[in-house]
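Protein modeling request. Please complete all fields; requests missing the sequence field cannot be processed.
Requester role: graduate student
Desired output: 3D structure, token encoding
Chains: 1
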Amino acid sequence: MSEPTIVRAASDKAAVGERRSQPVVNSAMVTSLVEDNIALVGHLVREMMPRLPGHVNRDDLISAGMAALVVSAQGFDPSREVPFARFAAIRIRGALLDELRSMDWASRSVRGRSRDVESVQNQLAATLNRSPRPQEVAAALGMSVSEVASIQADVSRASVLSLQAFAPDSGAASLPDSRRNPEQLVLEREQLGYLHDAIDELPERLRFVVRSYFFEQRQMSDIAAELGVTESRISQLRAEALKLLRQGVAGLITEAEPAVAGGGDSGRREARVASYAAAVAARGTVATRLQRSTAWGETVHVNFGRSSIA
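Delivered output (310 residues):
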């Protein structure tokens, strides 16, 4: 390659580098683009505000949108023949979403799982024509009830309230109401009635231990002396009674299908639990179970007298 050709190629390369290093638009054009499109930021913020919670500050979004508008003007390339408003709107919306994510106390994964739970709840409510139970929501999501409750707790912890909303007359309305609604109260009263029926259906020896220990607050040593056994044996009987109560009542409360008894010792235990649960279910009705508590969910005192065993 001749010397003039090399010099000419180097000169062309330098010219290309110089053109690439120059800004696409000058400062006067940047200023003009920003001033002519300030209203675009306000329009995009107004479009987004109705879908946002009340604690989101409008000024913070305006500030983020203005910064995105300036960056868009600096990077705008008129040669691409794309309208600046369309080019800037994409960047401004992205900046607004980034600002909202930075304000959110919950992670994106928590919000995603929360939307999944809410979607399943809405679908089940439309199908069942009632509010779905936690067990039904968990089954539809392929999760346990505790996992669904954990997701809802994470979202609740990320909720933000403004101190300015706590006016003397209306501030209390901004706080979540922890009181039970009528449906929850009736369900809890029925569960309490199930528990009382389950205790009444326990074998005589187990029932005596439960009533003496939990209702009469007697010492294990006194119960052991009356039954003529050791305290460790009373502890075993108490554990056996509690296990039977949990197994017998759990299926009734969750409306689970009864287990099919197999063979051997395991089959006999399953048959015993199934027989016990059936006896508890047949012992009372909804009305009799609700009589075990007051209308406010307080347990009605039952005087068993001094427990004794033949």
